[in-house]
Write a structure and sequence with these properties.
This protein has 385 residues and is of the alpha/beta class. It is built from 13 helices and 16 strands. It has two domains: 2-140 and 321-382, Periplasmic binding protein-like II (D-Maltodextrin-Binding Protein, domain 2), CATH 3.40.190.10; 144-318, D-Maltodextrin-Binding Protein, domain 2. Strands 2, 3, 4, 5, 7, 8, 9, 10 and 13 form a nine-stranded mixed beta sheet that branches. Strands 1-12-11-6 form a four-stranded mixed beta sheet. It has a three-stranded mixed beta sheet with strand order 14-15-16, with no helix packed on it. Helix 12 runs antiparallel to helix 13 (363-373). The protein is elongated and about 65 Å long.
Length: 385
C-alpha cells in the first residue's frame, strides 16, 4: 500500500524564498532563489491565537533594538527569510539571518557572535556545556526528502526501504538495478546505472536528522557511522547546504541525496516514498510531517528527534528545527526585540509555514515553546511579564 502525498494547493507549489534575509545577503550558488506568493495581510494589531503577555505584542516596546543577527541551519532558511521580511514590514525590525549550516550556527552562538543561533539537531552534552544556559526554541517542522535523479521516474514512484536506503549510503548497494531495489519497485524499469551518493559537506542539522533516522533503522549504520551534524561518510560526494546537495543531485544523472522538502520542490527533484515503521510507503508532505510529530512524545524541552515515528501515516525522516538563545540575556534592548520576534514567529508566523512546505507547530508544541521563551531574562528579571 502506498500513501501518496496530499494534493498541493497553489501556495504549496510556489517556489521558495532566497536563503539570506537582509537585502544583499546571498544564497549558495548551487540553486536558484525561489519566488514567493503575496503574504497574508498582517498588521501590528493582528491578534495571536493565544493571549500575548504585556511586552510581547507583535512589535517590541519603545527603546528596543531595531536590528538582530542570527546564523545557522539551512533547513528552515526559506521560512526564516519569509518571516523576517514580513516582520520588518510589520515592526521595522531588520533580522539578518545567514544560513551557514547548523554546525556553524551552534559555533557562532557558542562564541556569542550572533544574537541567536539555529540548529536542526539537538545539542550534545558537550555543546550545551560549551554554551551553558542555552534554550532550544522550536520554530517549525519539516520533512527531509530523499531525492534521486532518475530519468522517467516521477516523485513518489521510487520506493525505498530502510534496508535499501542505509545500504546505499553504506556503499553496499552501488547500482539502481540492484535486486533489492528492484524487489520493492516491480513496476519501475530502473537503469543499470551506478548510484552517485550525495551528502552534506558542512556541519548540518539536516544531516543530524538523516543520520538519526539511519541509526534508528540500521544496526550497521549505527555501529559503523552513527548520527550527528557531521559524520565520516563511507561513500559519496559532498554539497554545501541543502542548496548544494539539491544542486549536485540535479546535475548528476543516477545520483541520490537528502534535502529539506522545500528545496526538492524548488528544484523539481524527484523524491522517493519511504517505508515507515508501520510498513507503509509514504511520501514527504505536510500531513505526513504532522503525523510524525503526533507519533512521538514531546518533552518540555522539545529536544527530541521525530524520525521513525510510530504513526502509521508518518513520513519517517522528519524533524523540528530550533532557534538557540541564552536564558540570561545581557542586552535589554536586544533581548526585548528577540523575544518579540520569536513570540510572533511561533504564533502569527506559523500561518506562513504551509505555503513553503513546512508543518506548523502543534498547539502542544507551541505551549512548550512559550514556556521556554518565558525563561528569558535580563538582570534576573523575566522579559515576558
Amino acid at each position: 500500500m502506498s500513501i501518496r502525498n496530499v494534493e498541493r494547493s497553489p501556495a504549496m507549489s510556489l517556489a521558495l524564498v532566497a536563503l539570506a534575509v537582509v537585502v544583499g545577503a546571498c544564497a549558495p550558488a548551487a540553486t536558484s532563489a525561489p519566488a514567493v506568493e503575496k503574504a497574508p495581510e498582517l498588521s501590528a494589531t493582528t491578534a495571536s491565537t493565544v493571549v500575548i503577555p504585556a511586552g510581547a505584542q507583535p512589535c517590541p516596546p519603545a527603546g528596543s533594538a531595531t536590528t538582530l543577527t542570527g546564523a545557522g541551519a539551512t533547513f528552515p532558511a526559506p521560512l526564516y527569510t519569509r518571516w523576517f521580511d514580513e516582520y520588518k514590514k510589520l515592526c521595522n525590525v531588520a533580522v539578518n539571518y545567514q544560513p551557514i549550516g547548523s554546525g556553524g550556527g551552534i559555533q557562532q552562538h557558542t562564541q556569542r557572535l550572533v544574537d541567536f543561533g539555529a540548529s536542526d539537531g539537538i545539542l550534545t552534552e558537550k555543546q550545551l556545556s560549551d554554551a551553558p544556559g542555552t534554550l532550544m526554541i522550536p520554530m517549525t517542522a519539516g520533512a527531509v526528502a530523499v531525492v534521486a535523479n532518475l530519468q522517467g521516474v516521477e516523485s513518489g514512484k521510487l520506493r525505498l526501504t530502510p534496508e535499501t536506503l542505509s545500504a546505499i549510503y553504506l556503499g553496499a548497494i552501488t547500482k539502481w538495478s540492484d535486486s533489492k531495489i528492484a524487489a520493492d519497485n516491480p513496476d519501475l524499469k530502473l537503469p543499470d546505472q551506478a548510484i552517485t551518493v550525495v551528502h552534506r559537506s558542512d556541519g548540518s542539522g539536516t544531516t543530524n536528522i538523516f543520520t538519526s533516522y539511519l541509526s534508528d533503522v540500521s544496526p550497521d549504520w549505527k555501529s559503523k557511522v552513527g548520527r550527528g551534524n557531521a559524520v565520516q561518510w563511507p561513500v559519496g560526494i559532498g554539497g554545501e547546504g541543502n542548496a548544494g546537495v539539491a544542486g549536485a543531485v540535479k546535475q548528476r544523472a543516477g545520483s541520490i541525496g537528502y534535502v529539506e522538502l522545500a528545496y526538492a520542490v524548488q528544484n523539481k527533484l524527484t523524491w522517493a516514498a519511504l517505508r515507515n515503521k508501520a510498513g507503509q510507503f509514504v511520501e514527504p508532505s505536510l500531513d505526513a510531517t504532522t503525523a510524525a510529530m503526533e507519533g512521538v512524545a514531546i518533552p518540555d524541552s522539545t529536544a527530541v528527534m521525530i524520525v521513525n515515528s510510530a504513526s502509521a501515516d508518518a513520513y519517517p525522516i522528519a524533524g523540528f528545527t530550533w532557534i538557540l538563545v541564552y536564558e540570561n540575556q545581557t542586552d535589554r534592548a536586544k533581548a526585548q526585540t528577540l523575544t518579540a520576534v520569536l513570540w510572533w514567529a511561533i504564533h502569527d508566523g506559523q500561518k506562513l509555514s504551509t505555503g513553503l512546505d513546512y508543518a506548523p507547530l502543534s498547539p502542544g508544541v507551541i505551549a512548550k515553546a512559550e514556556a521556554q521563551l518565558r525563561k528569558l531574562k535580563v538582570d534576573g528579571q523575566p522579559i515576558l511579564r
